[in-house]
Amino acid sequence: MLVFLLRRLAQSVFVLIAMMIVVFFGVFMIGNPVDILISPDATPLEIEETMARFGFDQPVHVQFLKFVGNALQGDLGRSFVHGESAVSLILSYMPATLELALLGLIFSVAIGVPLGVYAGYKADRWQGRTIMTGSIFGFSLPNFWVGMLLILIFAVELRWLPSTGRGDTVEVLGLRLSIFTADGFQHMILPALTLALYKASLVTRLARAGTQEALMQDYVKFARAKGLSETRILVVHVLKNIMIPIITVLGLELGSMIAFAVVTETVFAWPGMGKLLIDSILTLDRPVIVAYLMLTVIIFIVINLIVDVVYTLLDPRVRVKGDAA
Amino acid sequence: MTVLDVRDLQTHFFTDTGVVKAVDGVSFSLGEGEVLGLVGESGSGKSVTGFSILRLVDPPGRVVGGQINFRGQDLATLSARDMRSLRGNRIAMIFQDPMMTLNPVLRIETQMVEAVRAHDRVSHAAARDRAIQALSKVGIPSPEERLAAYPHQFSGGMRQRVAIAIALLNGPDLIVADEPTTALDVTIQSQILAEVQELARDTGTALIWITHDLAVVAGLADKICVMYAGRIVETGPTDAVLTAPGHPYTEGLLGSIPGHGRRGERLTQIPGMAPNMARLPLGCAFAPRCARASDICRTAAPEITDIGPGRALRCYHPAPMAEGVA
Lengths: 325, 326
Fold this sequence. Notes:
The complex is a heterodimer of chains A (325) and B (326). By secondary structure, chain A is mainly α. Chain A has two domains: 2-72, no CATH class; 90-324, Orthogonal Bundle (MetI-like fold), CATH 1.10.3720. Chain A has 14 helices and two strands. Chain A has helices spanning 2-29, 34-37, 44-54, 60-72, 86-121, 126-140, 143-157, 182-215, 218-225, 230-259, 262-267, 273-282, 286-314, 316-324, and strands at residues 170-172, 175-177. A two-stranded antiparallel ribbon of chain A has the order 1-2. In chain A, helix 1 (2-29) runs antiparallel to helix 13 (286-314) and helix 6 packs across helix 8 (182-215). The radius of gyration of chain A is 24 Å and the shape is globular. Chain B is α/β, with parallel strands linked by helices and 326 residues long. Chain B has two domains: 2-221, P-loop containing nucleotide triphosphate hydrolases (Rossmann fold); 245-326, no CATH class. Chain B is built from 13 helices and twelve strands. In chain B, the strands form two sheets. Chain B has an eight-stranded mixed beta sheet with strand order 6-7-8-3-9-10-12-11, sandwiched between helices. In chain B, helix 8 (186-203) links the parallel strand 7 (174-178) and strand 8. In chain B, helix 4 (108-117) packs across helix 5 and helix 5 (124-137) packs across helix 7 (156-168). Chain B is globular and about 65 Å long. Classes of the chains: A mainly alpha (325), B alpha/beta (326). Chain A binds chain B through residues 216-219, 221-229, 232, 236-237, 240-241, 314-317, 320, and chain B through 54, 56, 58, 84-89, 92-93, 95, 97, 100-106, 110, 114-115, 118-119, 150, 152-153, 163, 166.
């Protein structure tokens, strides 16, 4: 297990280096931040001074090496706009996004897995077909539209749930979180549902396909021959076998939920990282963009690592191979 | 006392290409501690017969007719709930491929304890004790430690022993074994055969042993049913059927077993292939492959006729020896 983890970490370092190169040069191409940072009527001397202060007057490769050198010390630069360290700026927005994504994930599993298993069990009946048709809507409705529809129904018409902001927050382990206050949790429900809808449809389809396949296996027939109830067969025998593909996909999806919740955060005015990214792109705040993308890569790497560890918990056969490696 | 009495069982599969009569009018009965060998080629309907008894035929298959009398209850008309309480409890089943029958992601303990607790309101610890007893009964060393293992940590033979132990857990009256030794090494095969025979004798459990191998049932079964194309073509006490087969198909099966003292001799084979079950010939299903077939065989299917004590045959032209013995 330890060897396996170390090997994965080494691979991750290469991914990070590659990503660093792509991100830095990619962002370098998209325009000169000085045009935005400095008022149009500044004197050439002022422009030159500013360029020198931020290091823009140097050739690209020198800038890159400086960036790498700083990055190795954990410094991804200062925000041009906020004057704050880019990393700490992003980190201060992160808890809001993380808790939202996490709740979205929980919703998508809680909705998707039971629906999918049931749809697979009743695959040829109207129940199964109805669920599958519903999942097509989940797939194809655009995120912002779902968000606004939910606001319209639950916030404007029914007045059950709030639609903007984080509500009350409470400090837990140094992080400001909404999820632990009743008011904050209420504020999270609609955006989390919006985030979860697409994933829930995905999980439903995966769970259905897995269930259909598992139900044809001999071990299900044998479980029936033991006289087990259909509920136990589905919840214990089938579910544990179909969780592996679901966990894989959810891991990747969690990453994308954290990194690209931009639209949902904008619709619900949720002050998370996605909103920060949009604002930074608009102001060409280069260090924040670069730091954001780097952090995104790290998030994906960490999640993939967690997914691999969860596999070994789910499938005893993987456990043996991992020990041998 | 009769444990199981199957009368005119019919299990059909409703496929796109037509109705397949996988089991078409099968009858047999089985007493306490008796072993019945159900013999036939792939596709003869022997496994479907076994699954029909437990009402575990997958769609599009369905039991459409006949009676399955088990200790006075007709299983064919029993409610799903009552049927479930019999499965794994009074009637157990062992499957063909031990690599596939145990759930790969659950510990042996889980899979055994749940089988006990599905039928008995006992504590986990009590169920676990029963599982340990069953495992040691089928010859699994240090059963207590092995309970914590997963199926992939066992060899094929050991997995089949575990499956047999699961079948034994609730002391069933009847075990249906669907080619349980086919996937195993020959040495393991004979060990398991001997053990199962002993267990059935000791506990008075009736056993239906489904196989394509006459040699396997020769030493195990009290009586034999030979199936062809969904029907029983010959039945009788094992010794009688093996020494004096009446049906040309049984003769063919016996002739294709390699044996002692037959070195250098050519094995006989049954020409042709098992028939397409969706398009059976008009008369006797075996007629196209039969050396003795005449015009009547090709126009009207023969009925099953008694030819002696416990012996019956479905053939217009039985081997002359069979009548002599009867």
